[in-house]
Inverse folding.
């Protein structure tokens, strides 16, 4: 039996000009236009946004939990990649 | 003059109020969660619009009646909404078709009302127009989706359009109050709105692969306070709390 449920979409909202879009959640919709409308209705009811992106969840390529060791562990002991070996001039400190 | 203006505003307010009340019946019963939320959002927009208009009507009347007095303590014959607003909620196709007809009307109506010489009405219209634009986008989209969808959705929408079309000429039937208001630079030109509305309806029906049904009869009377048999039940539900506990607040 074919899957009759509507596809899932991930919603990204930018709440202010100049800031990044942030993942807000997900919704079901039949196509892009409907996804955009439902994203608006679901996630911008309380003035949260000035821009919306929607993307089909199926189009996101995600790393898998079993990739964790090979992807992320090798970075753990390479402390020289962190910019902690430089003297930061006093005037540049935030 | 002020009683014509009062009647004029009451009509706009009642359309929004009764449409909002009907649409809110979908809350918790939408076809799926996202659309449930979208329908409730629209209903809230309509009730917000009704609040602005009824408050202003009370102010114009000058007898100290508040928005709540006007919404909850008038009787059926004193309501001035179009009949289409009070028809039972029906299935989703019926709701979609009703909202589409009403949204398209509101969009062109309030766009024109922005130029009213009455600055309060012009400001309400400018705020309302932004909501109408979104409502129209949402309902037009569903018209096309259902009309050009499955055999089932097409059959239901075809039936809904045929049932609702006879109620639409009431949108454009100008009476004395409309004329007086238009002469004062407040009321909008209903002939212009009618042309724009007809073009938009034809365009969307075409896109939805639906034929426009011929008009064999028309229904009206809401603006004279002559309502359908459904109105009393709607008011009973809407007004019962305030009538039982007058002045009750959240």
């Amino acid at each position: 039996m074919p899957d009759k449920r509507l596809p899932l979409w991930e919603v990204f909202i930018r709440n202010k000009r100049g800031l990044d879009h942030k993942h807000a959640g997900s919704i079901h919709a039949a196509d892009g236009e409907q996804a955009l409308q439902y994203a608006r209705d679901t996630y911008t009811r309380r003035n949260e946004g000035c821009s919306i992106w929607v993307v089909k969840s199926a189009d996101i390529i995600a790393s898998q939990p079993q990739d964790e060791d090979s992807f992320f562990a090798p970075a753990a002991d390479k402390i020289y990649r962190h910019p902690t070996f430089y003297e930061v001039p006093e005037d540049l400190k935030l | 003059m002020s009683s014509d203006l009062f009647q004029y505003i009451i009509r706009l307010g009642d359309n929004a109020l009764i449409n909002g009340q009907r649409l809110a019946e979908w809350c918790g019963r939408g076809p799926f969660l996202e659309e449930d939320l979208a329908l409730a959002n629209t209903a809230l927009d309509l009730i917000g619009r009704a609040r602005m208009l009824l408050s202003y009507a009370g102010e114009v009347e000058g007898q100290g009646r508040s928005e709540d007095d006007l919404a909850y303590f008038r009787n059926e014959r004193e309501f001035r909404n179009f009949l289409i607003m009070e028809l039972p909620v029906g299935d989703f196709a019926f709701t979609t078709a009703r909202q589409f007809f009403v949204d398209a009307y509101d969009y062109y109506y309030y766009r024109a009302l922005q130029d009213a010489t009455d600055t309060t009405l012009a400001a309400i219209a400018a705020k309302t127009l932004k909501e109408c634009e979104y409502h129209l986008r949402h309902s037009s989209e569903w018209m096309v989706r259902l009309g050009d969808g499955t055999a089932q959705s097409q059959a239901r929408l075809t039936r809904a359009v045929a049932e609702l079309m006879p109620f639409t000429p009431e949108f454009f039937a100008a009476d004395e109050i409309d004329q007086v208001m238009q002469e004062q630079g407040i009321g909008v030109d209903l002939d212009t709105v009618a042309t724009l509305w007809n073009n938009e309806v034809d365009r969307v029906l075409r896109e939805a692969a639906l034929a426009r049904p011929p008009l064999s009869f028309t229904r009206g009377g809401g603006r004279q306070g002559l309502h359908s048999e459904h109105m009393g039940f709607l008011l009973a539900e809407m007004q019962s709390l305030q009538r039982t506990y007058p002045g009750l607040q959240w």
